Amino acid sequence: MELDFRKSIICVICVICGLTGNAKTVKDELKEQTASKLPVKLRISELQVNPQTTFILPDGSIRMNVEVLNRGGISLAATSKYNFVNSDIDYRIKYSYVFGRNNIGLSVFDSIDFEKVFSDSRFIARKRGGEGGYWRRLGRFYSIGMTLSSEQHFMVPLVEETVDYDKSTLNSGTTRLAYDSRDNGSDPRAGTMYWVSFKQATEELDGDYRYNKAEMGLRKYFGLRFFAAEDAEPKEKKKRKSKKKKKNKVAPGKNLIIALEGLYGAVPYKRRISAEREAVPYLDHYRLGGFRNLRGYAVDEFMGEDVVSQRVEVRLSYKATEPVGKIWGLYFDRIELVGSYDVGVIGENVYCRRGYLRQVARQGVAYGFRFKLNVKRKISMILYLMEGRALRQNRDGVFYLSYTIY
User: Fold this and answer.
1) Can you tell me the distance from the alpha carbon of 213 to that of 270, in angstroms, rounded to the nearest whole number?
2) DSSP 360-397
3) Dihedral sign, CA of 29, 31, 32, 37?
4) How far is residue 303's CA from residue 288's CA, in Å, rounded to a whole number?
5) Could you tell me the CA-to-CA distances from 341 to 73, 74, 245, 309, 336 in Å, in that order?
6) How many CB atoms lie within 10 A of CB 267?
């Protein structure tokens, strides 16, 4: 009986092995048949698409950015900006390749301002050109880069029976050193970002401008505990979690976020090469006004070659932990009370004028709500509902609606 039982087990195993062997044989035959019918093999690399959209009212601006990445370090980004209040259109296409800590990029761009007022005249301004750059990461947070750019500027007067226009060329090189330790590029809550850049415009290669432009920028984020309830977890678990926390990660109990932003830009040297045009091109001037850099004023209301601007934004979360709740299929990760204060000075020769402290500083405040939302944990959104007011001026308040989808 034992021999018969062993023989039966061996027969069953042989049958199973035979079936498995036949299945593998069929699969191999299908592969051979497919290969014989398709002698050319196609390899499709995996792509990663990162779309982002920003819309701001009443500034009337919308910005769309789509970046396509693949596994080989190659990326193609397309950015388009449109402002239906000022009738501005701007788009850029950039191709870059990353190898190790190095990044090489080439881009072409074109922008049109359909109706602007400059030197008491109305005109259409257009800028188009291309640039190439090389960047290298220095450690974990630092990076340095060099960009060479060539642009063509067109100034078309909006005068009846006039077809004449001014065309000029801006050739420049820019060196930039940056530091970025933010925990999240789209919604940072901790870390620091600052940069220093120096731009040199030259009349070489048929350039029409010669000037220097220096710029420094800062963005700082840090969190505090403001009437935040203690977590109900044991102290031992808290100690274990605190050891695993990253350096810049905000603890759940810190529900007060303070964001500081600053920009300093100046033209320390300029030379007027031609009597027909300004020493610094109109399209290379700084702008102040609007939701992005001076709330309470019209978008791009002030313009100048030099600028100093600062912003302090305070955000107080409804709850220290995430998520807050769900309404109509939307997941509210955070609901925040937000307030901001902006101040800026813009003009010409601001950086070296003796009476700099006597300059009229534009100031504005804004207050409202800030929401972080997501749809089915796939699409994230930052939504602002704020009212801005200009200080020291008899102006009505401005209601802002801004959202960024990423």
Assistant:
1) 9
2) --EEEEEEEEEEEEEETTTEEEEEEEEEEEETTS----
3) positive
4) 6
5) 40, 40, 32, 11, 17
6) 23
Cα separation, 103 vs 73, in Å, equals: 9
Q: What gap in Å lies between CA 363 and CA 344, rounded to an integer?
A: 7
Per-residue confidence in pLDDT tens, the chain, 406 aa? 444 544 454 454 454 344 444 444 544 554 554 444 444 444 445 678 889 999 999 999 999 999 998 877 899 999 999 988 878 899 999 999 998 899 999 999 999 888 766 666 778 889 999 999 999 999 889 999 999 999 999 988 877 655 667 899 999 999 999 999 998 878 898 999 999 999 999 999 899 999 999 999 999 999 888 765 444 444 455 555 454 444 444 445 678 999 999 999 999 999 999 888 889 998 899 999 999 999 999 988 898 899 999 999 999 987 766 677 777 778 888 899 999 999 999 987 665 555 554 567 899 999 999 999 888 767 889 999 999 999 977 888 999 999 999 8
Total count of residues recorded for the chain: 406
Residue keyed to tokens 């308040």: 397
Task: Give yes or no for a contact between 172 and 200, defined as CB atoms under 8 angstroms apart.
Answer: yes
Report CA torsion sign: 348, 351, 357, 362. Answer: positive
Give me the residues paired with residue 286 across strands.
Answer: 304
- Tokens 């990029």 label which residue? 105
Which of 293, 138, 305 shows the shortest CA–CA distance to 219? Answer: 293
For residue 188, whether the previous peptide bond is cis, meaning omega lies within 30 degrees of 0, is: no
Which amino acid is located at 1 in the chain?
Answer: M
Give the number of C-alpha atoms closer than 13 A to the C-alpha of residue 12, restricted to the C-beta side. Answer: 5
Token pair in block for residue 299: 């978008």
CB-CB contact of 89 with 82 (8 Å)? yes
For the four alpha carbons of 104, 110, 115 and 117, in that order, the dihedral sign comes to positive
Beta strand 47-57 pairing with 398-405 = antiparallel
CA distance 120 to 20: 86
E strand or H helix at 231, and its extent? none
